[in-house]
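pipeline/complex-builder :: batch 7 item 3
reading input block
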Amino acid sequence: MPGPINWIIWLVGTLLEGSVVVFALKTNSLRRYLFLNLYMGLSFLVSVGRLEILIRWGYTSLEYAYFYFYSDALLTLGLYFALLNLYSLVFDEMKVERYLRLAAVVLLGGTAWFSYAVINQSSHRLLSHFAFELSQNLYFVGLVLTYVLWGAILKLRETRTRLIQLVLALGIYFSAFAADYALRNLYPNLQPVFQYLTSMLAWILPAAWAYAFLRVNDEARLEPSRLAAVSR
Amino acid sequence: MSRRLIVLLLTMLVLVGAMSLKTVVITHGDGSVIMANGSAPVPPVPWKNGSAPVPPVPWKNGSAPVPPVPWK
């Protein structure tokens, strides 16, 4: 069973996830950032569901493991759509929704096909393993898409502060997990530290998004610091 | 080239890049979960051990017939 520190980390994470939706409601941002809030709302519900399963069946039970990995695949799918929500907001003035939808469907289909192709070679528990593989593959797709979006934001000289904060938080979130994975493999003897650190990384996204909804006005713009200075 | 084809090309590039990155990372990793949503404690992967076919032993010495593995 998890220790007291694990329970505290989990509780704080769950509260942060719930607070994102509450702050979005409070600032009337729910519809504009619908998929971001759906993802956070779903994360909150899944967290409560995991707690229920963990208490009833135990940490090492198959029930908890399967519920955890199936719900994780669902959440990663939700995160993928949240990322697409950010794409549509960044490119909303270019009227390219049609192409974004096409790219999203092809990318999701391609990832699902790749996941199936991999597990089809090595596993007889197709559905369970597929959910896990799809979740991990979508994570990498999300990582690459976030960096592409950040490049587009720089190129388009985006100035909407809240949108930039939301995208940057997502970039930091993905990058932190990648760095954590690398460090876990470099220093396997520090497992007692990483078991807490990895769980705490999940705070990054809800904390940053909650801050963005609560403190950063949707109309706020960054100062035009990149104006070219022309000599007279 | 139409815009639709350009979109498809870019999408494929993202997919190939992401899957290549994943392959590189997994090859050098310990097989544990890379990313998990939420702060809940990650359970051990239930299907990690057990169902993969046992490979032939690469260090076979001599020409005697190999007995069946008793602990399969």
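note: Chain B touches chain A at residues 3-4, 7-8, 10-12, 14-15, 17-19, 21-22, 25, 28-30, 32-47, 51-52 (CB under 8 Å).
queue -> next item
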